[in-house]
Amino acid sequence: MIKSILLLVFGLITFFLAPSVFAQNSSRQYLETKHEAFFEPDRENIHLHLNKTIFFQEEHVWFSAYVYDQNSQSPSLQTTNLYVCLYDKEGNEVRRNLLYIEGGVGHGDFKIDSSLTSGIYYIKAYTNWMKNFRHKDCFIQQIEVLPQAPEMALPDNTDEFDVQLLPEGGYILENTNGIVGFKVVDVKGAGQKILSASLINSDGITILENIHNNHLGFGKFAHFQEGQRQYKLRILLENEKIIESILPRPQSEGILIMSNNLDPKRLLLSISTNERTLNSNKGELFFVAFHQNTSLLVEEFILNEKDLVFSFDKAKLPFGVNTLTLFDDKLNVIASRLFFNEWAIDIPEVVIEMKEETARDSVELAAIIKIIDTTTFTLSASILPEGTEANQPNNSIYSSFWLMPYLRNPIEEPSYYFNGYNRLKLYELDLMLLVQGWGRYDWKTIFKDVFEQNFEYEQGISIKGKALNADLSKEDSLWVNDGSPMEFYFLDLNNKKEFTKGGLILYKNDSLAMALIDRKGKLRAPEVELSYVPRLVKENLNFSHIRDYPLIFKSKLTETAVHPLKLLDNTIQLDEVTVVERKLPRRDIKKYGSLIGYLRKLGFQAMIETDAFGFTKLAVKAPARSSGGTMNIPLSLNGFPTDGSDLVGKPLSAIQVIAYDEAKRGYLSFTSTGKYVDPDAPKRYIKKLITNGFTKPNKYYEPKYSDYDSTVFQQYGTVNWQPAMLTNDKNQVDFSFPKQEQPKVKVYIEGMSTDGKLLSTVKTVQLR
Hints:
Blueprint: H1 2-39, E1 44-50, E2 54-55, E3 60-69, E4 74-75, E5 81-88, E6 93-100, E7 105-111, E8 119-126, E9 139-145, E10 161-167, E11 176-186, E12 194-201, E13 206-208, E14 218-225, E15 231-237, E16 242-246, E17 255-260, E18 266-273, H2 275-281, E19 285-292, E20 295-302, E21 307-313, E22 320-328, E23 333-341, E24 349-358, E25 362-370, E26 377-385, H3 397-402, H4 423-436, H5 443-448, E27 461-467, E28 477-481, E29 488-492, E30 498-504, E31 511-517, E32 523-524, E33 528-533, H6 543-546, E34 579-583, H7 586-592, H8 595-601, E35 605-610, E36 616-621, E37 635-637, E38 640-642, E39 655-661, E40 668-672, H9 681-684, E41 686-689, H10 711-716, E42 720-726, E43 732-738, E44 744-753, E45 758-766
Parallel strand pairs: 2-9, 37-40
Antiparallel strand pairs: 1-3, 3-4, 3-7, 5-6, 5-8, 8-9, 10-11, 11-14, 12-13, 12-15, 15-16, 17-18, 18-21, 19-20, 19-22, 22-23, 24-25, 25-43, 26-42, 26-44, 27-30, 27-33, 28-29, 28-31, 31-32, 31-41, 34-39, 35-36, 37-38, 39-40, 44-45
């Protein structure tokens, strides 16, 4: 009898508990399913390392690009096509580069030529895949081109300030302890330095003084909210202006979350509520979720008292920015908070040593990465004068990949938190995340979002076309060469004489040699219709993106010297010389074929040289009988100086005019045809100009400044740029450059390893 009663009681308990357990499991499963679906598509992040951010006309904006897979936290291998565009202050596109990315890295440049006047410009980098997402994670950096003379200063309307009060978890709860964050910004969104801050109750009594804050205008304080009493925050700014802001009205019911992130191994989470909320929710089930990218950790608890404390092992949580969210059993969001999990943070130390001084007043440095394991890094380095003011980037590679992808709103000086990282920086990072409030990926969006893939990963260039004159009875394919030695492939023709091929690495303004080939291997010139994908379509900048990236450095337009930094032309100025201008006749094109052969026919000493980095270039010296024949002659192509690297392998048919001084020692100027006209093309093949392709990276060359010891050069000049250096098996890379008369330089190094490790450092180096 007793056994039967016990079985009946157990059955009733099971009957009544089963719906609760089912609901609990159902809610948790729904949470996990929605999260998995939302983060299943890969997300790409981009960082550009610029050689500096402030320029004069005729300088180049040199940059290295790093593309990162947010989910795997490693170099992105899905995309090879990166769009890097330059916009003026009105958002008009003025330059567009399609950059080839291999293994997540690439490099390129923009020239600040005479068509770009002084003022503010923006560089934006993005991939086609990013267009699938509401938050596109494009990279945007403001740069500045300085004027020839100081401009009139605009009025500085910075006497208006905004105090933003942001309670931890999202709200203040009556009769409960809580944390309130705050920040003070001006009309431009720049943080303001605070001399003091205090909390005052409705009776005018100061209940908190000397509230902690930092140089960016962030602060926080602990506060017990007494009923519905009002409180206000009084702030004294550095300019002695006093501003006051009333705290938000408290809620009568709710649950607060407060995190303590200072323990290096554990995150402490306090959950607090008031008597009224506890009475109406006692015994109810709640969920705490931590999520970042594809990682989700869910814990549950029963609310049975007003104050609960939980401890979480940081080693089991994802590294970096986590979103902490409190749900009720119906998955309503109660409170949310961002925090940074620094567990296993990897910021390697970098030591830069001088190896030796070399010829021509150059120096060789060694950058050594102090890590235990060996991994290959690709590094870029900007070398500037020690007193430079010309480099003020929005982000470092750390903040671009570890921080910005998870924030909803822009922040000031994001790179600050990882520069000289320590426990104080972690505290300030936690303070910044507190005043951020909600993160980028809120749960309302995660629950409702359905991913629609409208844009593909782009890998290389695709060509589509039609061989109009093909005889399909014997010619069923095309032979194609893109100008690379020994590199060719065949394209099959379908029954409509059409062909297509993707994944090609084609560079704009190079050419494709194309020929019909029959079954006996005989070539014949085709008549071809040809198009390229992607098409490079000009797009203006959406200024809503600009507002997401506030001005982070003070404009130098009104501060430059009356005599700006001047760059010297690389050509030699000659007095009273006779210029020989030779338009190339067809018979010479047929006879000599190559440019180097024709220059030798004219008497020049022309040769192909290879430098220490493996780059080849055309070098030309004066005829042996001419004085000064030991020095290379300055070269120019289409009016711009060239080091000869873009003349290597060019057929003579690519050149329309060659001009030089009569003594054949002052300069050589080439004007290209814009297309290739091979003499044998009508018989065997044609050459088609590549109109849509990757922008070929220029090799860095040293700008020739008028002087190297002026104040202007020290503030805004460039010493050297190294776009792509690979570390050896000792985690070291050596690089050399001309000292440019500098006793000390500031070296900015950034990079990424093949397994996703990141590096960013700034070092001042003494040059002996």
